[in-house]
């Protein structure tokens, strides 16, 4: 018999908000006079990870990205481009809202300070979560075991008593390795079915 579920730990990107990275690289590339592939290649290095680990503040991200692309964009223009690829996943929000107060609700996301600043006011549901574990605030990133342990600490339960949902299979596998009940997130309808199977 499965243990009673005490917590649900959710990813942010492609769960609560879609992020179209192809669009991001295309738009940044266009502004820098590069094709999308060149923009992605230039931006997929250490700076991306440093931003997610919180080693770069807002100005640091702007400087790193602009330096990699060979342009110098003012912060307002850069910030609009840097967040152009997000769309709120409206269909999933009511289901997540329905979990509030029934289980501990924890967010676990690889993200950076500028994306957090942009998404917070557009996702007021985040205020209903018991805790947000953001890589840029804790200095850890998925799939490192320690970031899952940090989420569990805030969930206040044993690993097997928490369900974890992420769209990246490798991150789900890492969650399973620390004892969480990991599930690959695909669609709102599939999420609904997964929650029902868990008794939620």
TrEMBL record:
Taxonomic superkingdom: Bacteria
Database matches in Gene3D superfamilies: HAD superfamily/HAD-like (3.40.50.1000), Putative phosphatase, domain 2 (1.10.150.240)
Example of a GO MF term: hydrolase activity
InterPro entries membership: HAD-like_sf (IPR036412), HAD-SF_hydro_IA (IPR006439), HAD_sf (IPR023214), PGP-like_dom2 (IPR023198)
Record-given protein name: Hydrolase, haloacid dehalogenase-like family
Signal peptide: none
NCBIfam families documented for this protein: HAD-SF-IA-v3
């Amino acid at each position: 018999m499965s243990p009673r579920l005490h917590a649900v730990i959710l990813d942010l990107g492609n769960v609560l908000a879609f992020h179209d990275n192809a669009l991001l690289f295309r738009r940044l590339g266009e502004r820098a006079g590069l094709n999308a592939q060149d923009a992605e290649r230039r931006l997929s290095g250490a700076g991306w990870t440093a931003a997610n680990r919180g080693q770069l503040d807002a100005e640091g991200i702007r400087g790193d990205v602009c330096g990699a692309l060979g342009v110098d964009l003012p912060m307002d223009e850069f910030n609009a481009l840097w967040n152009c690829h997000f769309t709120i996943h409206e269909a999933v929000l009511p289901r997540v809202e329905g979990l509030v107060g029934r289980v501990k609700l924890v967010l676990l996301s690889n993200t950076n300070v500028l994306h957090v600043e942009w998404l917070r006011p557009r996702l007021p549901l985040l205020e209903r979560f018991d805790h947000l574990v953001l890589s840029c605030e804790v200095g850890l990133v998925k799939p490192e075991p320690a970031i899952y342990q940090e989420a569990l600490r805030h969930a206040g339960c044993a690993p097997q008593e928490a369900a974890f949902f992420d769209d990246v299979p490798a991150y789900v596998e890492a969650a399973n390795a620390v004892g969480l009940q990991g599930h690959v997130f695909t669609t709102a309808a599939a999420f609904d079915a997964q929650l029902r199977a868990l008794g939620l």
